[in-house]
Amino acid sequence: MSEDDKHKIIIKIDSQADNLWAISNQLFHEPETAFKEFKASQILSEYLSQFGFNVELGIGGLETAFKATCGEHQKPVIAILAEYDALVGLGHACGHNLIAASAVGAGIALAALGSELKGQVQIIGTPAEEGGGGKIILAKAGMFISVDAAMMFHPADRNMVLRQSLASSRLKVEFFGKASHAAAAPEDGINALDAMILTFNNINALRQTFILKDRVAGVILEGGQAANIIPAYTCAEFSIRSLTASRRDYLVEKAISCAQSAAMAVGCRVEYHVTPGYKEIIPNKVLAALFTKNLESLGRTVMIPDLNERMGSTDMGDISHIVPSIHPYLAIAPEKTAGHTLEFKEYCASDAGKSAMLDAAKALAMTTVDIFDNPDLLTKASDELNEELKTKAV
Ligand SMILES: [Zn+2]
Ligand SMILES: [Zn+2]
To answer: In angstroms, rounded to a whole number, what is the distance separating the alpha carbons of residues 203 and 11?
Structure first.
């Protein structure tokens, strides 16, 4: 990228810093949860349309999703993704307000390059990352078919471009037994709670076979009505994660067999339902190298994470299996500050949050220009993804 373009991007984003910060804070103070992000999607898409973006609000069957497009060229297409959903009960404790502001910030800086922009930029507003899988719904609706690469940033406790995420799934287990008087006639009952307790114990027995980052966490949602009645119905939900989608699927199967064998032991009926979650992120190294260089040029030190790193899950994982993608993290909080906490939430409206949001906007825009300047990089990025997918399929 020419120094001139880089300079223009930095100037543009700095000139809009107060407006971007106001958008971030507005989202922060009026948090909207999954699929209900009506104000946020409106604010973000209106802002982009002021800078010449062609905006479609309500795409892929999702009212609160949007696509904003700019650039005189049709190809290549770089998508910068904006998340803006908050956590139920906690508000913006994952910093999606900062993600949204950085995405539109990058967008307006790229739009300002006008005819110098050698490709198309799409800012895609992706609702419901916290559990609803908005990006997966948009991908199924074909929103990423024409996209050549996708990027976004996420706030964290350190600057990490190559950090991975876990593949996730939800498993709901229900046991149907038979109620009876717990003192007078327990022998007539079929205890659905015993089946549930056995399921948890079976899963705990499996833990000795777990490998790095295998996670099975469960809660009993219904465990019975009263101690003097043999429980006829129990229900639990499990969150199952691992480093790869195939390993996650294996763990889901094992957890199901734990429930089935418990049902057999007790003699009750079991039903289960698997909700497919998110795939693991495949961070694209070609794109990551560009982003890292740009982020370092803005004065940030980037650390290389290993597999022992704390990880969550994101629907960006699924996108990274479709198009070359990066999901870099920028520090807004001191090391070891976990997301989804009140402590992290404070940083999402702090000066450190503002600085990360602005640096992310700049690095996303600069990386987009790098790719437009050298489209061969996209072939390399896509070859890399195909190789990764081939390795995972084995
Ligand atoms: Zn989150
Ligand atoms: Zn998040």
So the answer is: 55
Cα 189 to averaged position of ligand 2 atoms, centre (Å): 45
Residue 254: is it exposed, middle or buried by C-beta count within 10 angstroms (0-12/13-18/19+)?
Answer: middle
How far is ligand 1, taken at its centre, from the CA of residue 165, in Å? 12
CA dihedral sign, ordered 179, 183, 187, 193: positive
Q: How far is the CA of 94 from the centre of ligand 1 (A)?
A: 5
pTM of the model: 0.93
Other C-beta atoms lying within 10 Å of the C-beta of residue 324: 30
Looking at all shown ligands, the one closest to residue 98's CA atom is 2
Element (H, E) at 222: strand 215-222
pLDDT in tens, 241-259: 999 999 999 999 999 999 9
Report d(CA 104, CA 294) in Å as an integer: 18
Q: Are 278 and 133 in contact (CB under 8 A)?
A: yes
C-alpha 340 – ligand 1 centre gap (Å)? 6
For 243, residues 6+ apart whose C-beta sits below 8 A from its C-beta are: 164, 166, 167, 212, 213, 280, 307
Using 50, 70 and 90 to split pLDDT, how confident is the model at 307?
confident
Rounded to the nearest whole angstrom, what is the distance from the C-alpha of residue 255 to the centroid of ligand 2?
Answer: 27
Q: Render pLDDT for 10-65 as a digit per residue (tens, 0 to 9).
A: 999 999 999 999 999 999 999 999 999 999 999 999 999 999 999 999 999 999 99
Report CA(187)–ligand 1 centroid distance (Å).
Answer: 47
Q: How far is the CA of 11 from the centre of ligand 2 (A)?
A: 28
Q: From ligand 1's centre to the CA of 93, what distance in Å?
A: 7
C-alpha span between 221 and 231 (Å, rounded): 13
